[in-house]
Specification:
With about 120 residues, the chain is mostly beta strands. Helices cover about 0% and strands about 45% of the residues.
């Protein structure tokens, strides 16, 4: 059974930083495009950033220059380095393939940006 386990969330003040990790069971990330998604309170889950199997990255405009997605293929892990965090970044963050597969959603990791 495939498992994606997100970690690294927490409470941080505006302007702070967090590094999220997504560890995959097995080798499902191998050769795949992987993304981070987030669901803010009262809103639907939405795509945030992607890293392709070749290492090319893309993201939504509101996080460009602040968030960096990366991957460690040897560890079957994808990361999201978040800096200059804003209250509007508050959400539950998830990882999944791109496009996402329904059965791969994990529990997510909560990020709260507040003073």
């Amino acid at each position: 059974q495939v498992q994606l386990v997100e970690s690294g969330g927490g409470l941080v003040q505006p302007g702070g930083s967090l590094r999220l990790s997504c560890a995959a069971s097995g080798t499902i990330f191998r050769g795949a495009n992987v993304g981070w998604y987030r669901q803010a309170p009262g809103l639907q889950r939405a795509w945030v950033a992607t890293i392709t199997s070749a290492g090319t990255t893309s993201s939504i405009a509101s996080v460009k220059g602040r968030f960096t997605i990366s991957r460690d293929n040897a560890k079957n892990t994808v990361y999201l380095q978040m800096t200059s965090l804003k209250p509007e970044d508050t959400a539950v963050y998830y990882c999944n393939l791109v496009p996402a597969l329904r059965d791969y959603w994990g529990q997510g990791t909560h990020v709260t940006v507040s003073s």
